[in-house]
Automatic annotation (TrEMBL):
Name the record gives this protein: Pyruvate, phosphate dikinase
E.C. number: 2.7.9.1
Domain Pyruvate phosphate dikinase AMP/ATP-binding: 77-302, 309-359
Needed cofactors: Mg(2+)
Organism superkingdom: Bacteria
Taxon lineage: Bacteria, Bacillati, Actinomycetota, Actinomycetes, Kitasatosporales
Amino acid sequence: MSENKDPQVAESGKSVEGVKFVYDFTEGNKDLKDLLGGKGANLAEMTNLGLPVPPGFTITTEACKVYLDSGEEPAALRDEVSAHLDALEQKMGKKLGQADNPLLVSVRSGAKFSMPGMMDTVLNIGLSDKSVQGLAKQAGDERFAWDSYRRLIQMFGKTVLGVDGDLFEEALEKAKEAKKVTVDTELEAADLKKLVTSFKKIVKKEAGRDFPQDPREQMDLAIKAVFDSWNGDRAKLYRRQERIPHDLGTAVNVCSMVFGNLGPDSGTGVAFTRDPASGHQGVYGDYLQNAQGEDVVAGIRNTVPLAELEQIDKKSYDQLMQIMETLENHYKDLCDIEFTIERGQLWMLQTRVGKRTAGAAFRIATQLVDQGLIDEAEALQRVNGAQLAQLMFPRFDESAKVEQVGRGIAASPGAAVGKAVFDSYTAVKWSRSGEKVILIRRETNPDDLDGMIAAEGILTSRGGKTSHAAVVARGMGKTCVCGAEELEVDTKRRRMTVPGGHVVEEGDLISIDGSTGKVYLGEVPVVPSPVVEYFEGRMHAGADDADELVEAVHRIMAFADRKRRLRVRANADNAEDALRARRFGAQGIGLCRTEHMFLGDRRELVERLILADTQTEREESLKELLPLQKQDFVELFEAMDGLPVTVRLLDPPLHEFLPDITELSVRVALAESRQEPHENELRLLQAVHRLHEQNPMLGLRGVRLGLVIPGLFTMQVRAIAEAAAERKAAKGDPRAEIMIPLVGTVQELEIVRDEADQVIAEVEAASGTKLKLAIGTMIELPRAALTAGQIAEAAEFFSFGTNDLTQTVWGFSRDDVEASFFTAYLEKGIFGVSPFETIDKDGVGSLVAAAAKAGRETRPDLKLGVCGEHGGDPESVHFFHEVGLDYVSCSPFRIPVARLEAGRAASQSVGSDHR
């Protein structure tokens, strides 16, 4: 439903008697964007402020929706348009298209959200073979009149009648060649008359009809064309990219024409009340004398800085400066303004809240607070997490010369440069020698972790935003580009072939941009981020070396921290990441993935544990693992002293700890052919075959693994408890929480909990220390969410694992689907965004909400959090705030984003949409 203040609103597909479909500019206001579109609402607002706006009227989005649903305009629309046109003609003292003194109008689109260039506009409606003479007489300029007429035929032919625009351009070029000139403005009236004749012939041939001479027919057809342009291919693609709903429709603005191309005392321009690039106050914009707005866009002539208007036309300049101040104070924000000067008379054609860079957004928000125009809550609505993320990651110098060779999915932001390497071993080796490297793989797996840590960035030819490479890279703050399918990666030959046949050999320098997904040959210079230096404590707000941007970010983050209810924790698996997360503002660890502690040197111990045939062998392996695990937790608890640390017991499927079945089969076969000893390899192969799973992500993992392999979970619980006791003895304040993964039924949790409670009691007795170790579970299966009330009887907290919950709710394998069909789903509008990137509120989100409610009905003090990738996604953070979770947990480098969005969610207020 729109914000129509009229009590009657058109129902979709119907024409309801008495519904108001047309508003004069004097009737609307800036709060009616749903109904009048952004352009119409703001034209009305400027009119109400007494600013010089050419008179006109707006056809509502409701009329557009009726037309799009039914294929016909509302029955009452024509009469309403006629009534408003009569009023406009009386106000202007001239009639649309009359021969001696014609009124000309523009017909422009105007949706709720700005969609620049995506929909249609037609200028100079009302010109015809007769009225062009009247316009020439009225203006005292024959050339101007014929130039306006050829523009109308060209725009109308292309936009309304569907004529190929290149045909008009070719005719225009021929006219300039015949005249031996290079720009349109050098054509004279006689040349333009001939061009009009040529254009009309093109229309007749291509459209099968004459260019309409009836001005009302011109206007009616143009209005329909604007309605139709809402569903044009470029408009639909833009809406998908910008996540604008498809059912809003567009308004149509009919505005009396004013002309900036009437001589040197006329012109057109664009102005900003502040610099949209930096946020600094001053005079920003461009001006072009003796021109229409389309001339500025076409770039056929060079504009001059707006400040030069003061010398060209001081009266108009001073009036414009005053209007800009009025608009900024009224909208309480940066305003983007389009204006025309017609023979010394300034006219305002459009204003809107201006788009800006991320840095400008933070600066402007704090400036407006200081000016008393907005409060802290509104300042938080003027920035967002995506902008903060842009400021945090290093970026390439855009002025540098680059050679782009590919593009993949922008999986983890940043700019990374290094030598190409194709395996983890080489990445580590070269890195230790002081080389910067980019690890290139078809796809990564846990074995690549060392190489990923060593590399400056990761590039894969497969996978998506939630692939292993992407998730781990984001957690480490590493730049990552995934799914660059046009790049052919050959790890055996240690080379990558790029489009065009160029081969990148191991050791060649490449650069990858994790913010855009672009891949470059050679080294592209990198610009560091002072915002990250601030979060890491290397730059202090208010210090001499801190710039305005850091100070603005510091203040906005302080606003957010004061406002937010959600606490923000980190996903961190070691002390180094934990300390970084703490510097970034983490209030604990919401997910410590113990599987990462079992890789590397310990992998052989885990392999022996899994393959143990006897209780003795199993106990020996556990005995060796225990002190190593304990030391991991001692370091982690020390780093996060005084803050909660949620430790997830071992979760991944068995195959991640066992040799690859194909490689092992080859080794055994070779040994047999050479008659070499291979008893151990054969035994191992038999065990791998026995444990092999077709779908390991839904197999023996999580709590199932803990129940099947005796002693595994109890060893981990003992390590946690002993580490906590040791920290307490050292006067520390460990706050450990034990999380059981992949629980589907309360009975699983009860069994593991009973064993854990017994181990904790043993450690308490041995150490003489009372331990408070909360035990909870991850809710990551639909059944767990649906039986949350039962599970809460045995759980002190829930942490929603939304990655796996999304996977199991949708029936998607997240390692496969993004690369296989997600692109098609996004293009077809099935998804507005990947459900692995932003939580699916209707499906996955409804399970989260229901489980949270059921869990707290059983246990009112149940602590609720989320530790999937969604914990750092801006839109998802707002959802988690709404459903009442206590905290979100995310990668260390996403903590500031989550803090900011948690503050924005808590202080949500009525404000401008800064889409």
